[in-house]
Amino acid sequence: MSSDEGQSRQVRLVGAVAGMGSGLTKVAVGHGFDTIKTRMQCSPPGTYRSAFDVLSKIVRNEGIFALYKGATPPAVGWAAIDSLLLGSLHNYRLFLLRNGMTETSPSGAPRLTLLAHGVAGLFAGWTSALVATPVELLKVKLQLQSQKHASDRQFRGPIDCAQQIVRVQGFAGLWSGFTGSLAFRSNFFWMFLSFEVGSPRQRGITIQPY
Prior knowledge:
The protein contains eight helices and two strands; from the N terminus they run αααββααααα. Residues 203-210 have low confidence and may be disordered. It has a two-stranded antiparallel sheet with strand order 1-2. By secondary structure, it is an all-alpha fold. Strand 1 (102-104) and strand 2 form a beta hairpin. It has a single domain, classed as Alpha/alpha barrel (Mitochondrial carrier fold).
């Protein structure tokens, strides 16, 4: 194996590990806030007065750990989602670099244009939607269960939730809302484009087409 091939594999491995770490960190820090947001968005009007009211009612009626209902799918899934996002982003950048979406850097070497960074981010976002859609679906369905006792819940856990969806809607039911997920994840075009605009030092770095 050549040194270039070894370096390419190392870059892709680092990207995958970084994506896994990113996904798990988001679950640990953000899932409780996401549960509050989901309850406010999806509960009947008048159920809650504010985010603090949601928080107090969940803790009082269901316990503090209820804030992490539905955390298992994103804990597993977001690691895969972000790994897929960052890994595919790298490969889309290489593809665009090899196919001429380049400009000349100050050093004279070819580098991706700002538009190419945005396009790579767009395609990476769409690719990650394949995994993100069922993960988000299971997460939301579990978060919306407000019953304190397990015997009163519609779903016993993420596996039971997935089985019930497949039983009623078929396997494709796990991808309900896929077009909405594609639309939402189109924002990665602007995210990765703006990152390059806002990081002048990064603009001087070229991506080697291994």
